[in-house]
Amino acid sequence: MPSGEEGAGLVSEDEIKQEITRVMRALYERGLVSALGGNVSARVPGAGEFWITPSGVFKGNVNVDDLVKVDLDGNVIEGVLRPSTETPFHAAIYRVRPDVNAVIHAHNPVTLGLALAGVNLKPISVEAVMTLRRVEVVPFAFPGTDQLAKLVADAALKGARAIILMNHGVVGLGANLLEAEAIVETLEEVATAQFVAMALGKEPPVIPEKDVELYMKLYFQG
Question: What is the pTM of this model?
Fold first, then answer.
């Protein structure tokens, strides 16, 4: 998914809201979020406001009427429920990354487990190179705080497409929801494959750096 073209046609708010609910349910079914944990947001490309999942609602059955629209300062524009407690870092990402139109926060167990053990994810698959590209890790900060929002924004400014929040979870940044979803899923796929190899006492081989550089040159420098 070099440029995130797939799914880029989701430009109307109604389409975006439907897609947010689909992604939230899919993450729950895949065990990447819990009943009350995790959040998803998206916006019309370049917009100064975004839709986000609410706080305190069962994630496996979020519907479009539950969603809340907020501006880039976190002020509620539309909706009756309370927006996610993580709204500050979603807003912070949108403020500093005009190329990002979708943000997913999940609780990938294997990805987080490796991070807590001090193990960095490696480019062990084509998907890791193509989809993840740059992964940043930020230290623990309490959810919903300005401190966490700043840490996440700083990581986003470095060009991260995936951010691991220590003792907390992961964040996927995409040009659209499909791309952000693929990033979150790929994180867990790569982490699981790496964990299996390590559990069997083997250091997983990585894709050679020259091949990574060639891929990046072919797809992202021309």
Answer: 0.91
Separation between Cα atoms, residue 197 and residue 194, nearest integer Å: 5
173 φψ region: left (φ > 0), alpha (ψ -120 to 50), beta (else): beta
Any catalytic annotation for residue 86?
Answer: yes
DSSP-derived letter for residue 54 is B
Cα(183)–Cα(104) distance, integer angstroms: 9
- Of the candidates 87, 95, 105, the one whose C-alpha atom is nearest the C-alpha of residue 144 is 87
Q: Which one from 86, 179, 185, 189 is the annotated catalytic residue?
A: 86
Contact 179, 102 (CB under 8 A): yes
Residue keyed to tokens 């890790």 = 137
Q: Which tens digits make up the pLDDT trace of 166-217? A: 999 999 999 999 999 999 999 999 999 999 999 999 999 998 888 777 766 7
**Residues 194, 204 contacting (CB under 8 angstroms):** yes
